[in-house]
Amino acid sequence: MPITSANLRRDPCGTSAFALTVIRNGLLSEELAQDDSDDELHRGRRKDQATADSIIPNNLSFAYLDVSVGEYASFRQNFCQKTGCNSNLWANYTSEDQFKAFIKSGSVEKKILLISTGRQCANIIKDIHSLPQLHSVYIYCQVVANYESLRKEYSKLRGVFSKPDLLLTRICNDLEAETLPKAPMQTRREGERHTVTSDIISPADQEALIERARKAATPPKQNQIPTENGVEVFSQPGIHWCPWNANSCTKTLPVKGQGTVAVMELEPMPFELCLSSKPNPDDPEAFSIILGIDTTGAFFGTNKKTYDQSHIPQHLIQPNNGKWHTYWLSFFKDTRKLRYGIGEIRSMFSIFEITIEEDMASELREIHYLHVKFPDFTRAVDRSVKDPNGWCHKKLVAKANRFGRPNFYATYLRVTVGNRDGSAPGHKYVVEIWPPGHYSPIHNHSNAYGIIKVLCGRLLVKLYPELSLNVRQYSPIETLLEEGQITWMLPRLNQTHQVRNPDLYGACSISIQCYQYGEEDEEHYEYFDYLNNDGQSIGQFNPKNDDVNCTVDLRLLPWMLRQIVLHHYPFVVVVVVLLLLRRRRLRRLRLPLLQIVRYYNYR
Fold first, then answer.
1. First CA to last CA distance, the chain
2. Per-residue pLDDT tens for 207-246?
3. DSSP letters along 142-181, please?
4. Domains in the chain, ordered, with CATH?
5. pLDDT at 439 over 50
6. What three-state secondary structure class fits 209?
7. What is the pLDDT of residue 528?
């Protein structure tokens, strides 16, 4: 089966791993559509088997709690035809009190399997769940999501269903599983362990099985991806893979209106998949399918309506148990069906199944773009800063004496973008992370041109007339920059400042700086001078990167920051224009442009 594979790996320690597979040509969607008929065939085979060897335990009977007698009669008939069950084992109850009286009066050796409407089950399950006579409960209702929460509280509640055929199949499967013969344990002499493995499987075979299991739990690597015609490979060995362009976060699907997307994860990483009819899913005219999953909930629907959601742990991001977990979404224009499941990709393993309305069918046929969203980057940074075991926190502790006398709060993180080429003090583009209450020393910027923008949070900038030992005797000019605002510097203006995150108990602030020497600057000074933490001396700071490439919990930081730079392209365009205006014949235009920037900054 032709597939499109994509892998996103994190550090070798295995802190996170991610693989994305997009089925080309919509083949798997068609197979899922065909899968229903295949499952009918399997169900037919089960029926034949059940007729020969009944799956109904001798002490089990069935109760149907519903005010609708017609639904009961139809379901009983189908069940008996499928399993060969005697219809005398069935009873219908329209009253909750009537059923409670019946089950409490029965012998504890006799077991009752209950099928109930959602409302009636919610009313009585607390009273009957602990009764030994109750074998299991199945809910048959119109809206599955309304009663999924009950499954977390009551272990005998086996499932919630809106379709009678799925309910029937689930009951048969559960009963069949209970009646399967158990493998006999070999008889041993007294004192010997009861084990059958070594007698059945040789040590060599055991090793082979273990190796096969290990490989089965590992997603395909670059050299394991099939080479058949039609396979499109997006992964890059040794490079973090991204399935979208920098600003659009979008991947174009090979075929409109159908396909399957599979996400494989080792570490629990929340994500959101969006399949849309427009390159920009926020376009007012776009139609989108949206699946969002994290450790607390899952929701599935379109941008017009949420059809289904769940908070059941088995439906959510799975914890790391050493195995890879597959989360998949399929959609097929001809049947108008949308499905979400975990594990093997087939309709019977669907957690959510949606059939969208006919008036949306034409929009479904135009689905052509895949968008993937990961957790909020700033939240990941903030968590790493505040966690004593986080890479960011450890780096801040290590930098506490960078500017003289140790001071944890006189630290911040620098992440450079691009390479040093000598056109600026350090790197031209720098992203800086400011934890709550942290600040820089008072420092200058080597007479460089520069612009600073706050990407998130806010920063307090204090401007000083010069850098000297007695600089604190001056009253600084203070400016509070909110998210999205910018400030600037010229060789002879705004060169000396201190930057601080004023929110002592809030979140991290993140800024991006762009620097460059002027063309008239014939002597480049590669350092920033700063006032030592104790205020007794002036030192030199080599503006280098904080080596984020060796991080564990923020391995994706350099790549994501590059996306930030490209995403804020209007700001970068202004910077580029300013740097181009350093040419002598255009220099007179620089100050008016800076005045415009200044107006934007303080408006």
1. 58
2. 665 565 555 444 544 334 444 454 344 443 333 334 333 3
3. S-GGGTTHHHHH-TTEEEEESSHHHHHHHHHHHHHHHHSP
4. 3-24+218-375 (2.60.120), 34-179 (3.40.50), 379-602 (2.60.120.10)
5. yes
6. helix
7. 76
